[in-house]
Amino acid sequence: MPEAVEVPPFRPRPPWWGADLQTLRDTLQGPRFPADRGVAHRIPIGKGEQLLALLDRPAGVQPHALVVLLHGLGGSSQATGVRRLGLALQAAGFAVLRLNLRGAGAGRSLAPGTYAARCNGDLAPALRRARQLAEGLPLFGVGFSLGGTVLLNGVRAAQQGERLLDGLVAISSPLDLAACSAAIGRPRNRLYERWLLRSLRRQTLADPQGLGPAERRALAQVRSIRGFDALITAPRWGFASVDDYYAQASPLPGLLESAPSLPPSLLIHALDDPWVPAAPAVALAGRREGGRAFEAREDALEVVLTPGGGHNGFHAPGGSWSDQLTAQWLRQQLDRQPGQTACA
């Protein structure tokens, strides 16, 4: 099995102590970014529908690889974490493709509906197009929160013998959707849930396919993520119920019960994440260390757990700890790749 990545300890940056301040730091004091110079690409996904992606290139050098970045629930290619990691990867010599999932950001008008934790029919053509844009370079994927869940589901559902990615990183990603829905619905997370619902309502109401009067009335009454998934996500993606959606779109059972078809993969999770319970990642880490599920596999799954960091936080002295770890892990994967060519 390949050698695991060396992980420096996470230490929170003052004054961002604790799970909630780590989670909220970018909202309370977001960084300033340079002008967005990403080149827009419209990616066909069938039935005349498209996704919008923005391609960023490192300045003055040939890139080492192309990295597809996926945002989380309610986010887009402009999300703070996506922009920050994208700039860090460009500085490290990677090209970056920031993908807007169905209904997100500036791609809202290009496809009806909204994305889900399992939207493999959208993801597969997007990653195939990214492979073309890479023109022989290694292709990696990094997903924040639900974006990591989308990647885990998508690459495991790839066609027989197809390698959609050469490696992936999932940061603070839900592995058990029912447990995650219950966690975000706790009284302590009420403000978080309201914020997420506002974003999801906005995306849904802007759907070019539109909502009927009854759907609009029902959407106005939704007070939980579970309620939104029951009304919108599950039926629009063909699931029998919200429980059916949560069961089928949760990566954890497949990751625990069998050796999954994954490229080299890194999962990063904080034990104090207030949105996404850490227990599934802890269970995966235990199976890996016990050697039962991952023994004698070339496609190693690495799980990195930290006591603190919140949800998509990891704000440390000198910058984002998870950004630094992701860049380090991707460089390590490059050492195992064959010769490279220039990116498109």
CATH fold-level assignment of one domain: Rossmann fold
Spatial separation of the terminal alpha carbons:
32 Å
Name of the level-1 CATH class of one domain = Alpha Beta
Count the beta strands: 10
Give your account of this protein's structure.
With 344 residues, this protein is an alpha/beta fold. The chain has helices at 19-28, 80-91, 120-134, 146-156, 177-184, 190-205, 213-221, 225-236, 242-248, 252-257, 279-290, 321-334; strands at 39-46, 49-56, 66-70, 95-99, 139-144, 167-171, 265-270, 301-306, 315-316, 319-320. Helix content is 38%, strand content 15%. Helix 3 (120-134) crosses helix 4. The longest helix is centred in the middle third of the chain and has 16 residues, at 190-205. The protein starts with 18 loop residues before the first helix and ends in a 10-residue tail after the last helix. The model is unreliable at 290-299 and 340-344 (pLDDT under 50).
Fold blueprint:
Layout: H1 19-28, E1 39-46, E2 49-56, E3 66-70, H2 80-91, E4 95-99, H3 120-134, E5 139-144, H4 146-156, E6 167-171, H5 177-184, H6 190-205, H7 213-221, H8 225-236, H9 242-248, H10 252-257, E7 265-270, H11 279-290, E8 301-306, E9 315-316, E10 319-320, H12 321-334
Parallel strand pairs: 3-4, 3-5, 5-6, 6-7, 7-8
Antiparallel strand pairs: 1-2, 2-4, 9-10
